[in-house]
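Shapes recur. One chain:

:::
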Amino acid sequence: MEKAYRLLSYRDRSVKEIVSALEKKEFEPKIVAEVIARLKEQNYLDDRKFAMVYGSSMLRRRKVGPRYLLNKLVNKGVDKHLAQETVESIFHEHGGTGEEIDYWIERKLGSIKKSVEPLKKKKKIYDFLLRKGFTAEEIFMAFDGWEF
């Protein structure tokens, strides 16, 4: 139980993260299940809360797109449907993805050599934004306001 409390003292974690950490320390499955049940009962462990806090933090700090955030949450052990709801909620509250895309376009335009052809600049930025988790539709909508 102490190990789980210590992990939760640093930041919120998903159920999967706690289970993995306890299993890594070779706790018996019965004990792991009891600890998880107790933490949930005490409201220390809540995947919905974890997803909101983690997702909001990722958006604020790393300015990622919805697909990237969804993949991160699922990899952290959050149920896919819950992760999808959370991502939609976070981006709805935030007002969409336009602000993040504009931030990255501005940054990337500053780092790409001026001698590069406009079409190549656009392609580099497009590929980068896809890797950041934005959809093609979101990217093309954002491109309308920029000159390359």
Observations:
- The mean pLDDT is 94.
- The chain has three domains: 2-41, 51-94, 98-143.
- DSSP finds nine helices and no strands in the chain.
- Residues 58 and 93 are 14 Å apart (CA to CA).
